[in-house]
Amino acid sequence: MTPKPPRLKPTNTPHRTNTTTAAPGFLSSILDKIPLPRWAIYTIFAAIILLMLICVVCCCVKCCCKGKKKKKKMDQTINMEGMTGSTTTALVQPGAEDAEGRSANQQRGKLEYSLEFNAPKSELTVGIKEAADLKAMDLGGTSDPYVKVYILPSKSKTFETKVFRKTLNPVFNEIFKYQIPQKDLVESTLVMQVYDFNRFSKHDIIGEIRLDLSTVDWNHVIEEWRDLSEASKHGQEHLGDICFSLRYVPTNGKLTVIILEAKNLKPMDQGGSSDPYVKVQLILDRKKWKKKRTSVKKQTVNPYFNESFTFDVSFEQIQKVQLVISVWDHDKISRNDAIGKIYLGCSATGNQLRHWADMLSNPRKPVAQWHTLLSSEQVDTTLALKHPLKFPLRNKVF
Questions:
Q1: Are strands 204-212 and 110-118 parallel, antiparallel or unpaired?
Q2: In which element (H, E) is residue 378 found?
Q3: Nearest CA to 132 among 114, 150, 159, 106?
Q4: DSSP-assigned states of every residue in 38-86
Q5: How far, in Å, CA of 155 to CA of 277, rounded?
Q6: Distance of CA 38 to the CA centre of its chain
């Protein structure tokens, strides 16, 4: 009888083969179920692993930096045992109490000017030379300074220098002349105010110089530097500010004036308010030429108009014409009162001349700007209009 072969080998061999191929077969079956190519799947896995590593590294760096910062803060603890001073300001900034007691003139800067009086001609010549170390009024640490010059108490004529952009040390070198008798000269005060120009907001005053002309020795030309002081609130009446836009088209000779808004107008009524409206006038050859007006805004000192007016002005006339913008208080019972005026044109000065020049140099483009109102007497005296003769019996009914 033939002996039977052992069955251990055939049964053990398949069992070992199944144990070694079970894990790879399971992983392959999972990868086969994903509807992406193998290289894309491997890329995604690598990106996930890389992102996890970056997160771990960032956490470690943050923890290390936090520990160093805390240690540094502890090392920089201030020992205040040796500090003296009765206020917190003195502890933070030694000597601040002394600085508060000093004059604020040094912080505003200084101005160089010249004065000369011609007695035979009754002519006072004021020269604005330059300014230095002006106070920075803008966020960038600079200012856009210009100087306004007038004489009190008459204040019949106000001059303004050109605006210098982004500087604290402007050089003006401008001369202004006033016709004033010598007897009035000794009773007058010369005011020179330095402003920071802002196209779309109120101009900020940096400082001023008020010079009593009775104390000046007129036997020689005066040329000196003086520190600017804080602007005096007495004798300085603020009439308000007005914003308007100018646009000129030379091809068809159209001048468009858009009265946008006014603010901080002088109250003319007893209730502390006004009923303002705006007159727009064109002056040609010292005569009133054309005029238009806005609607009346009731009981407000900050009216918003946004009203547009168009005039036919040729290119030859635009170089001679003067634009007068005046704000009035409407009154049903009594006469309307003028709050303030401003005029622009090639014969104007300062910001008014700059606005007019910007309009002419940018044809077809509206140019908007804020202006501070002047008194009616100032503008009327400067323009010196030719008034037509009025006959008293002209409109009288018999």
A1: unpaired
A2: helix 376-383
A3: 106
A4: HHHHHHHHHHHHHHHHHHHHHHHHHHHHHHHHHHHHHHT----TT---S
A5: 25
A6: 63
178 vs 347: CA distance, rounded Å: 16
Q: What is the dihedral of CA 387, 392, 396, 398, to 10 degrees?
A: -160
Q: Are 176 and 128 spatial neighbours (Cβ–Cβ below 8 Å)?
A: yes
Residue 22 CB neighbour total at 10 angstroms: 9
pLDDT value at position 22?
Answer: 47
Q: How many CB atoms lie within 10 A of CB 395?
A: 7
Using CA atoms, how far residue 288 sits from 55, 280, 283, 284, 291, in Å, is 78, 11, 5, 7, 8
CA dist 68 → 63, 73, 74, 78, 307 (Å): 9, 9, 10, 18, 64
With beta carbons less than 8 A apart as the criterion, state whether 96 and 89 touch.
yes
Residues whose CB falls within 8 Å of the CB of residue 110, separated by 6 or more in sequence, listed in order: 131, 132, 133, 225, 226, 227, 228
Q: Which pLDDT belongs to residue 385?
A: 65
Q: Which of these, 350, 13, 374, 366, lies nearest to 164 by C-alpha position? A: 350
Spatial CB neighbours of 98, under 8 Å, sequence gap ≥ 6: none
C-alpha count within 13 angstroms, C-beta hemisphere, residue 116:
13
d(CA 292, CA 307): 11
Neighbours of 159 (CB within 10 A): 19
Helices (H), 112-261: 182-185
- Reading phi first (left if > 0) and then psi (alpha if -120 to 50, else beta), residue 277 is in beta
pLDDT along the chain (398 residues), means of 10: 52 46 61 74 85 85 61 44 38 41 63 93 93 89 91 82 92 93 88 88 86 88 92 70 95 95 88 90 91 94 95 93 94 86 89 91 93 86 64 45
**Residue 105 burial by Cβ neighbours in a 10 Å radius (0-12, 13-18, 19+):** middle
d(CA 343, CA 315): 19
One-letter amino acid for residue 394 of the chain: R
